[in-house]
Design a protein that fits this description.
By secondary structure, the protein is of the alpha+beta class. The protein has one domain: Glutaredoxin. The protein is 39% helix and 14% strand. It contains five helices and four strands; from the N terminus they run E-H-E-H-H-H-E-E-H. Strands 2-1-3-4 form a four-stranded mixed beta sheet, sandwiched between helices. Helix 1 links the parallel strand 1 and strand 2. The radius of gyration is 14 Å and the shape is globular. The two termini are 14 Å apart. This is Arsenate reductase family protein. Pfam families: ArsC. Belongs to the ArsC family. InterPro entries: Arsenate_reductase-like, Thioredoxin-like_sf.
Length: 117
């Protein structure tokens, strides 16, 4: 399994995705095709944390008046399944590894993965 979960309207996602040959990868635009419970659970198997998958920059946090300090792992999971903007993007998921978000360290690790592949 090789999947990339991204948002087409996100310039950062497009910039990161554009750096790699993704011919053998399934590209999932999460607004058009939301992530499933099974996919979120597969991501969790790598991270052991739903919070690590959660974007604390989502506009939905303010709109819904969510207090991040009170959220449990179950709350994070439910929110991830409820609205696409809660997923930290992009997510590159393989059977053995996961790369989450756009921070510099993650992108560097992703580049190393593609060089080794």
């Amino acid at each position: 399994m090789k999947k990339v979960f991204y948002l087409n309207t996100c310039d950062t996602c497009r910039k990161i995705i554009g750096q790699f040959n993704l011919k053998e990868w399934e590209l999932r635009e999460i607004k058009k095709e939301p992530i499933t419970k099974e996919e979120v659970e597969a991501m969790y198997e790598h991270t052991k944390s739903y919070e690590d998958l959660f974007s604390k920059k989502s506009t939905q946090i303010k709109l819904r008046e969510i207090d991040l300090k009170t959220l449990t792992e179950d709350d994070y999971k439910e929110l991830l399944l409820d609205h696409y903007t809660f997923l930290k993007r992009p997510v590159f998921l393989t059977d053995k590894e996961i790369f989450i978000g756009s921070d510099k360290a993650n992108v560097t690790s992703l580049k190393d993965y593609f060089r080794a592949d």
